Amino acid sequence: MVSGYEGLPGGVAVSHLSVYDWPAADGVCGGTPHMHLTCSEAYVVTGGRGAVQTLTASGYEVTPLAPGTVAWFTPGTIHRLVNEDELRITVLMQNSGLPEAGDAVLTLPPEYLTDPETYAAATRIPVDAPEEERERAARARRDLALEGYRALREASGPEPLAAFHRAAAALVRPRLAEWRGRWERGAWAAAAGTGEQLERLERGDLSHLADAVVRAEGPSAYGKFGMCGRLDVYKGD
């Protein structure tokens, strides 16, 4: 390969998601509402039925999800997955899986968004704890995020959402250098490799075609407690 990039096409990452079937206080089953700041995300629905609720500066929307649906959204979209009947999704994520590896802020009430330590304490899932304890932690943070989400949905005027945006940006600022490194090694490297290949072809240099490789791998972990459901993930996600 010209660039040395070895990840999935375009620097995306893939995970398989079984959306939580836990009922919330509003009677709706589903995941934890949250927002990404630098990454777009796409859903390819592979089974079941449900919806994704979204909240942006343009307002609130509900997008139905059924097998064959492909839905995606850009940074700044608060989204909540709703599970109506065993909803299963293949998730495509920008920047080598950064949305599940840091680029996400849950819609917690404002008092939990004041600093990274307070936020982390409210959202942490103990990795080495028994599954029952991890499930309780995942469900508790989901329900806490729903409190803030409901307040944002019911707010009048743009300021509450703008305040959440400011708080989210402040929370992730200490990690931006790390994120930039992931982007440079992934999506940027993949795009730069294509540019170099085009330049070589224009010069009549076909040498990179002799370096073709095939790769395959299975999930590196099954059933992780994610923001929206149980995840099967791949190395690097």
Q: Tell the overall outline.
A: globular
Overall pLDDT confidence: 95
Total strand segments: 9
Structural class of the secondary structure composition?
Answer: alpha+beta
Biggest sheet architecture? 7 strands, antiparallel
Order of helices and strands: EEEEEEHEHHHHEE
Write up this protein.
With 237 residues, the chain is α+β, with helices and mostly antiparallel strands. 32% of the residues lie in helices and 27% in strands. The longest helix is centred in the C-terminal third of the chain and has 27 residues, at 176-202. The mean pLDDT is 95.
Tags for this entry?
237 residues; two-stranded antiparallel ribbon; 7-stranded antiparallel β-sheet; alpha+beta; single chain
Short characterization:
This protein has 237 residues and is α+β, with helices and mostly antiparallel strands. 32% of the residues lie in helices and 27% in strands. The model has no long low-confidence stretch (mean pLDDT 95).
